[in-house]
Design goal:
378 residues, 2% helix, twelve-stranded parallel sheet, Pectate Lyase C-like, mainly beta, disordered C terminus, ten-stranded parallel sheet
Length: 378
């Protein structure tokens, strides 16, 4: 007989993760919940319907997108990673993620890791979702911590690659999401529309220009802002506290709105006025990454660590490096620098990385010899 074993994603659960359900949308890679046809979110929906609040759903990495995921219970959602460094090589792709909360459903308290989100992550329903944790994801669109009429609270967003994050505030007198920690992420665009002193933006790297816009009263520490040209501030950035941030360019804000234009602690001179505050910020200063040839775009082969001579080395408010490798949530390593996996860490759980079937053809009642390698992605 011939024995064929196909492994998409093999995961072992911790006792603390409650009931675990595995999900696949590829019939060739079966799980506890598998679709009969290729692609789509039917297997996820079936697993969610079978789950209780606090359960864990593992989404296998396959050739197909899971489409739009709507999370309506408190769940732990774990994918195979957005650039998995293993023999199988398939990320867990989804088109969009929605936290749907209304009078009868509540995904508050959910955690999401290891997904490649092709567009946005949103709050939907009549109420905003709270106590959300996002880590080790790549989100090519926006993270929206609010819905059309309600602001979220207590979100922790760390160790992700994200295009932009929004907080819902439309002016300096309007509410926004609150108690939001945005730490140790690579932001390809920026952070916008937050208005509260409980917004902490710490140890991130911002690429390109117009990174902070319509942000009031937030705390920004130990971040690196790099671009080839353009301003860092967009629209109003007022009443914020900036400590030990680094900008490679002198142009922090446009002259029509800010004075002086080359410091983080600038005064907003347009309608309404107001000043920013802080200390220890560096402008016109090259952070001296190990290897980042282009400051305007993210590349999987770049090395965003700091050289030993970098002005950001051990310069942060906590004595660690400025940027994503310092602070309380240092960015995990997914592979060797330059390999294309360095900034693609997989979820922090034990995973099988390779399978070698040593005698694929065996006689009846024979022994199948399989060599399996695994690791814990701390």
């Amino acid at each position: 007989m011939k024995a064929l074993i196909t492994f998409g994603l093999m995961l072992f659960s911790f006792a603390s993760l409650a009931t675990v359900r595995t999900v696949s949308n590829d019939p060739a890679i079966p799980a506890q919940f598998t679709t009969a046809t290729e692609g789509g979110n039917a297997s996820f929906n079936n697993a969610q319907n079978a789950s209780a609040a606090g359960d864990t759903i593992y989404l296998y990495g396959t050739r197909f997108s899971y489409g739009n995921l709507t999370i309506s219970k408190r769940l732990v959602i774990i994918g195979a990673g957005y650039g998995p460094n293993n023999q199988f090589g398939q990320p867990t792709r989804v088109d969009q993620v929605s936290f749907f909360r209304d009078g009868s459903t509540d995904p508050s308290g959910s955690a999401v890791a290891g997904l490649l989100v092709l567009s946005n992550l949103n709050c939907t329903g009549t109420l905003a979702s709270n106590n959300i944790t996002l880590f080790r994801n790549r989100i090519n669109g926006s993270v929206n911590t609010f819905n059309s009429s309600n602001m979220g609270s207590n979100w922790t967003i760390y160790n992700n690659i994200i295009y932009s994050i929004y907080g819902g505030a439309s002016s300096r007198v309007s509410p926004s999401s609150t108690n939001i920690l945005i730490a140790n992420n690579i932001l390809i665009n920026g952070i916008f529309n937050f208005n509260h002193s409980s917004i902490v933006i710490d140890h991130n790297i911002f690429l390109s220009s117009h990174n902070i816009g319509s942000v009031w009263n937030a705390i920004l520490t130990n971040n690196i802002f790099v671009r080839s040209s353009g301003n860092l501030f967009y629209n109003e950035v007022v009443f914020c506290v900036f400590n030990k941030n680094i900008s490679n360019q002198n142009t922090i804000g446009p002259s029509a709105q800010y004075s002086p234009t080359n410091v983080f602690e600038a005064t907003y001179t347009a309608t309404g006025g107001g000043a920013n505050s802080g200390s220890g910020n560096l402008t016109g200063t090259n952070p001296l990454f190990v290897n980042v040839p282009n400051n305007d775009t993210y590349n999987i082969t770049y090395n965003y660590r700091l050289q030993s001579s970098s002005p950001g080395k051990n310069y942060a408010t906590d004595g660690t490096d400025v940027g994503i490798y310092g602070g309380s949530y240092p960015f995990p390593q997914g592979g060797d620098p330059g390999s294309g996996f360095d900034t693609s860490p997989m979820p922090p759980i034990p995973q099988v990385t390779s399978v070698n079937i040593q005698n694929a053809t065996i006689a009846p009642n024979g022994t199948l010899n399989v060599q399996v390698q695994s690791r814990v992605n701390n």
